[in-house]
C-alpha cells in the first residue's frame, strides 16, 4: 500500500465536502445521519458503499467518538472480524452488509459512530452516524385523596404525575380533555366562540344586540372585531354592543384572536341580519277633496326584509286589509285620517305606518264639549265646539262677549269659548254654529245651575259622622266601666273578701288583656302562667310559685 497515495486522498477529502461524492472512479459511502435506538433493545447502523470497477474492499472499520477521540470498535477484512477492546466489545457485531449491530443498547451508547471503508487502489472513505438512545418513561398519576376544593382564587393540587426511567429526561404535559395545560394556567386559545346575543331569534331595527367573542385561552387574549377588513370596531373584552341596530348594521362580522405565546391566530364570523320595514308610501300622496258619492282608491306599499302585511285603519279600527283601500260613494263620514299599518308576521313588534287625510266636500258635522256639568252665576266657564267639514267651517257663538280660541287640523275646527255666566245666559243657554259654503250645523248648550249648598248627600255625611261619634263614646265608656270593675274586684280579692272558687277565680280574676294572651300561648304550650290557669281549670291545686320554679327549671 502506497503511503503517498493515502496522503493525497486525505488532502482531497479536506478540500471536497464529502469524500464519497466523487466521480465514477471514487468510493461511494452511505451512512444514515441519525439512528434512533431504545434502551435495552438491539440496533444497527448501516454502512453501504460502492467500490470502483476492478477493486474490492480491503477493510471496513467502525469507530466511535469519545471526548473528540476516535476509538475503534471492530474491523472487518477478507480474513475476518477483529473486535477491539472497548466498553462495547461483548455487545457489538458486524453484518455481512457491514452494518454495525449493538445489542442491549445503553444510554451511554448515544454518541457518534464512524464507518471507514478502505478499497486498496481506490483509497478509503468514511462517514459518521449519530445514535440517539431513548427510553419510554414509566408514568404514574396519583390523585389527591382528600377531595378537591373548588375555590375561585386558591390553587389546589389535583394530582401528581410521576415519570421514571425515561431517557432522555422526559417533559410532562397535563391535558384537560384534548387540550394541553401550561404552567400557571396559561393555555393557548384553540377554540373561538362568536355569537349574537339579541332579544330573540329574529332581530329587528331598534333592538339591542351584543356580539360576544370568546376564546378558550388563558389569560384572556385580545380580541379584534371587525366588519370590513380595515374597519375595526371597539370591542373591549370581545363584546360589541349595538344599542339600536339598524338595517345598515346587517352583515358579516369577524372576531380575530392572536395568541402571542403560541403565535396562533383564530378567526370566527357571524352574520347579523336586522329585519326592517322602510317607511311606507301611499299613492296618490295628495288628492283633490272628493264630492259626496265619488270613489277613491289608495295604495300603500313598503319594502322590508321579509314578507309584509298591510292594514288600513281609521280611528284605531281596521277598515281594510291588504295594500289597497277602496272608498266608494263617499260621504262626509268617509272624511278623516286613514293609517296604513305595515307589519312583518315573522317578526313580532316590527311595525311602521303612514297616514293620509281623506278630504270629502261636506257640510259641517258638529259636536259640543262642555267642560263642567253645573254652573253658577259669575263663574267663568268654557265650552268647545268641534266641526268637521271640507272646506273648513267657521264657528260662531251666540254669546260673542266671551273670548274664543280656534285650533284646527285637516278638516277639523275646534273652537273654545270662555265666558262669565250671567242670569240671562243661565236662562238662554249658548249656541254654536258651524258653517261652510255647503251648509251649517248648530249645537245648543243648556246651562244647569248648581244645586243648593246643603244637598241631601251632606246631611247623610253629617249623620254618619254623628253615629261614628256615638260609637266612639260608647266604647270609651265601656272601657272605663271594665277598668273600674276590674279595680274593685282586685281590691276585694286582695282583702280576701271574695271566695276563691275554681270557676270563679278563672272567670273573674283573669284580666281582660290576658284573654288574648291565653289564646296565643296555648298554641305554643310553653308559658307557666297559662299552664297554671289551665291546670286550675282542671282542678289541680298548684300555687303560682311552683309554676314559676318550673319555668326556671325549663330554662336551665
Ligand atoms: C478490469 O479488468 C479487466 C480484466 O481483468 C480489464 O479488461 C479491464 O479493462 C479492467 N478495467 C478497468 C477500468 O481497469
Ligand atoms: C408561574 O408563576 C410563578 C410564581 O407566580 C412565576 O415565578 C413563574 O415565572 C410563572 N411562570 C410562567 C411560565 O408564567
Ligand atoms: C365564516 O366562517 C366559516 C367557518 O367558520 C367559513 O366557512 C366561512 O367562509 C366564513 N365566511 C366568511 C364570509 O368569511
Ligand atoms: C250612495 O250613498 C247614498 C246615501 O248613502 C245612496 O243614497 C246612494 O244610492 C249611494 N249610491 C250608490 C251608487 O251606491
Ligand atoms: C255683552 O256686553 C254688553 C256690553 O258690554 C252687554 O250689554 C251684554 O249684556 C253682554 N252680553 C252677554 C251675553 O254677556
Ligand atoms: C292622523 O293620524 C296620525 C297618527 O295616526 C297623527 O299623527 C296625525 O296627527 C293625524 N292627523 C290628523 C289630521 O288627524
Ligand atoms: C278642543 O280644544 C279644547 C281646548 O284647547 C280642548 O280641551 C278639547 O279637548 C279639544 N277637543 C278636541 C276634540 O280636540
Ligand atoms: C239657540 O238655537 C235655538 C234653535 O236651535 C234657538 O231657539 C235659540 O234661541 C238659540 N239661542 C241663542 C242664545 O241664540
TrEMBL record:
Q: Where is this region: Disordered?
A: 530-556
- From the UniProt annotation, give the residues forming the signal peptide: 1-26
**Entry keyword annotation includes Transport:** no
Chain segments annotated as transmembrane = 469-492
- What membrane topology does this protein have? Single-pass type I membrane protein
One Pfam family, please name it: Ig_3
Query: Locations of Basic and acidic residues compositional bias?
Result: 539-556
- Record-linked InterPro entries: CD80_C2-set (IPR013162), Ig-like_dom (IPR007110), Ig-like_dom_sf (IPR036179), Ig-like_fold (IPR013783), Ig_sub (IPR003599), Ig_sub2 (IPR003598), Ig_V-set (IPR013106), Surface_Rcpt/Adhesion_Mol (IPR051116)
Name of this chain's protein: Cell surface glycoprotein MUC18
Q: What is the lineage of its organism?
A: Eukaryota, Metazoa, Chordata, Craniata, Vertebrata
Amino acid at each position: 500500500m502506497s503511503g503517498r497515495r493515502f496522503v493525497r486522498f486525505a488532502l482531497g477529502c479536506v478540500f471536497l465536502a464529502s469524500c464519497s461524492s466523487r466521480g465514477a472512479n471514487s468510493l461511494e459511502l452511505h451512512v444514515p445521519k441519525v439512528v434512533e435506538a431504545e434502551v435495552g433493545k438491539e440496533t444497527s447502523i448501516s454502512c453501504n458503499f460502492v467500490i470502483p470497477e476492478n477493486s474490492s474492499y480491503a477493510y471496513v472499520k467502525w469507530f466511535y467518538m469519545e471526548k473528540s477521540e476516535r476509538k475503534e470498535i471492530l474491523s472487518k477484512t477478507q480474513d475476518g472480524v477483529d473486535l477491539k477492546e472497548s466498553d462495547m466489545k461483548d455487545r457489538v457485531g458486524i453484518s455481512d452488509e457491514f452494518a454495525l449491530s449493538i445489542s442491549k443498547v445503553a444510554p451511554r451508547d448515544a454518541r457518534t459512530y464512524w464507518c471507514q471503508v478502505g478499497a486498496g487502489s481506490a483509497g478509503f472513505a468514511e462517514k459518521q452516524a449519530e445514535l440517539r438512545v431513548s427510553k419510554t418513561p414509566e408514568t404514574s398519576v396519583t390523585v389527591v385523596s382528600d377531595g378537591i376544593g373548588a375555590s375561585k382564587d386558591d390553587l389546589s393540587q389535583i394530582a401528581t404525575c410521576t415519570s421514571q426511567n425515561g431517557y432522555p429526561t422526559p417533559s410532562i404535559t397535563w391535558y384537560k380533555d384534548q387540550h394541553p395545560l401550561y404552567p400557571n394556567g396559561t393555555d393557548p386559545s384553540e377554540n373561538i366562540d362568536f355569537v349574537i346575543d339579541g332579544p330573540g331569534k329574529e332581530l329587528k331595527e331598534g333592538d339591542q344586540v351584543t356580539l360576544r367573542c370568546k376564546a378558550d385561552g388563558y389569560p384572556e387574549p385580545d380580541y379584534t372585531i371587525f366588519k370590513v377588513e380595515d374597519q375595526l370596531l371597539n370591542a373591549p373584552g370581545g363584546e360589541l354592543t349595538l344599542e339600536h341596530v339598524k338595517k345598515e348594521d346587517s352583515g358579516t362580522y369577524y372576531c380575530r384572536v392572536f395568541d402571542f405565546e403560541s403565535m396562533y391566530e383564530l378567526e370566527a364570523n357571524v352574520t347579523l341580519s336586522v329585519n326592517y320595514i322602510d317607511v311606507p308610501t301611499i299613492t296618490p300622496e295628495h288628492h283633490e277633496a272628493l264630492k259626496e258619492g265619488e270613489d277613491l282608491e289608495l295604495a300603500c306599499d313598503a319594502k322590508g326584509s321579509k314578507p309584509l302585511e298591510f292594514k288600513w285603519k281609521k280611528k284605531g279600527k281596521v277598515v281594510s286589509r291588504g295594500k289597497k283601500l277602496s272608498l266608494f260613494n263617499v260621504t262626509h263620514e268617509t272624511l278623516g285620517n286613514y293609517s296604513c299599518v305595515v307589519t312583518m308576521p315573522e317578526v313580532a313588534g316590527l311595525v311602521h305606518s303612514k297616514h293620509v287625510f281623506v278630504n270629502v266636500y261636506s257640510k259641517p258635522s258638529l259636536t259640543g264639549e262642555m267642560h263642567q256639568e253645573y254652573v253658577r252665576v259669575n263663574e267663568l266657564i268654557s265650552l268647545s265646539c268641534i266641526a268637521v267639514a271640507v272646506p273648513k267651517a267657521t264657528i260662531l257663538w251666540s254669546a260673542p262677549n266671551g273670548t274664543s280660541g280656534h285650533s284646527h287640523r285637516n278638516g277639523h275646527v275646534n273652537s273654545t269659548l270662555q265666558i262669565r255666566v250671567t242670569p240671562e245666559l243661565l236662562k238662554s243657554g249658548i249656541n254654536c254654529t258651524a258653517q261652510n259654503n255647503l251648509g251649517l250645523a248648530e249645537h245648543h248648550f243648556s246651562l244647569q245651575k248648581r244645586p243648593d249648598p246643603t244637598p241631601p248627600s251632606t246631611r247623610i255625611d253629617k249623620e254618619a259622622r254623628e253615629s261614628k261619634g256615638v260609637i266612639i263614646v260608647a266604647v270609651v265608656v265601656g272601657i272605663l266601666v271594665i277598668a273600674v270593675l276590674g279595680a274593685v274586684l282586685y281590691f276585694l280579692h286582695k282583702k280576701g273578701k271574695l271566695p276563691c272558687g275554681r270557676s270563679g277565680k278563672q272567670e273573674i280574676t283573669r284580666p281582660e288583656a290576658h284573654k288574648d294572651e291565653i289564646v296565643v300561648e296555648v298554641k305554643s304550650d310553653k308559658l307557666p302562667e297559662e299552664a297554671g290557669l289551665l291546670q286550675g281549670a282542671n282542678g289541680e291545686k298548684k300555687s303560682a310559685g311552683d309554676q314559676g320554679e318550673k319555668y326556671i327549671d325549663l330554662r336551665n
